[in-house]
């Protein structure tokens, strides 16, 4: 089966399982989504959703957040990985939004990536989920599944992103990346997973990969 045909069949399965995948990070607007995504690095979405209510009670706009002491921000997010660095970046990010963008999150990839603590993946999520611009953010779940399903042999998330954009239609990107994340969490974990019984890996993965992962 060619890669494009495999992607089409995978897409149909994902659409059946997750016809309207929700955004897993709680937010109310582009700014709170940007903050939540930035905070999610090396931390679970569940943990981020546990700490952001207190953070957004403290400050829910760039201008107010920029006025907060780093210590106050850190107190709200201390449970997260890399919390000290994230607190400093959040204050700087908010100040730049207030000063350079009028307190508005820009719907522009380059402008987003120029913000402190905002990488390509974070910017892509915001572009896709806040502004509806087609993007294909790649996290560890997507990177893992794309390799198992023979959709990408990339050793970096950048290569995986480029490969997935080639095999999935652009108008599916924004839901497809969420669907693969949910599938990876629910059905296709990194360890202790029997690929041969998985409803996608069972036919999309090679026998060689099935055998290799069975030995892990």
What does this structure look like?
There is one protein chain. With 216 residues, the chain is mainly alpha-helical. It has two domains: 3-21 and 136-214, Endonuclease Iii, domain 2; 30-131, Orthogonal Bundle (Endonuclease III, domain 1), CATH 1.10.340. The chain contains 13 helices and no strands. It has helices at residues 3-17, 30-39, 45-58, 62-67, 70-77, 83-100, 109-113, 120-131, 140-148, 157-167, 173-186, 201-204, 207-214. α2 (30-39) packs antiparallel against α8 (120-131). It is elongated and about 55 Å long. It starts with a helix and ends with a helix.
> What is the C-level CATH assignment of the largest domain?
Mainly Alpha
The CATH architecture of the largest domain is: Orthogonal Bundle
Q: What is the CA–CA distance across the termini?
A: 27 Å
- From the alpha carbons, calculate the radius of gyration and give it in angstroms: 19 Å
Structural class: mainly alpha
What is the CATH homologous superfamily assignment of the largest domain?
A: Hypothetical protein, domain 2
Percentage of residues in helical conformation: 55-70%
Sketch the topology as an H/E string, one letter per element: HHHHHHHHHHHHH
Mean pLDDT: 96
Strand coverage percent? under 5%
Sum up the overall morphology in one term: elongated
Low-confidence stretches: none
> Got a strand count?
0
CATH fold-level label of the largest domain: Endonuclease III, domain 1
Integer tally of domains? 2
Main beta sheet strand tally, sense and closure: none
Number of helices: 13
């Amino acid at each position: 089966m060619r890669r494009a045909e495999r992607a089409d069949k995978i897409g149909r399965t994902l659409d059946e399982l997750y016809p309207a995948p929700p955004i897993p990070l709680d937010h109310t607007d582009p700014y709170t989504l940007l903050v939540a995504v930035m905070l999610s690095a090396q931390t679970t979405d569940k943990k981020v959703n546990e700490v952001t209510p207190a953070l957004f009670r403290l400050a829910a706009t760039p201008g107010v957040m920029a006025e907060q002491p780093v210590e106050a921000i850190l107190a709200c997010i201390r449970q997260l990985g890399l919390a000290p660095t994230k607190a400093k970046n959040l204050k700087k990010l908010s100040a730049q939004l207030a000063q350079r963008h009028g307190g508005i999150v820009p719907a522009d990839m380059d402008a987003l990536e120029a913000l402190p603590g905002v990488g390509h993946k974070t910017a892509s999520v915001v572009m896709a989920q806040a502004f509806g611009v087609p993007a294909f953010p790649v996290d560890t779940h997507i990177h893992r599944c794309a390799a198992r399903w023979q959709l990408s042999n990339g050793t970096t998330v950048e290569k995986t992103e480029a490969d997935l954009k080639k095999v999935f239609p652009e108008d599916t990107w924004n839901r497809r990346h969420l669907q693969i994340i949910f599938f990876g969490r629910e059905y296709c974990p990194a360890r202790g997973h029997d690929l041969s019984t998985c409803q996608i890996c069972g036919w999309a993965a090679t026998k060689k990969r099935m055998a290799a992962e069975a030995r892990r």
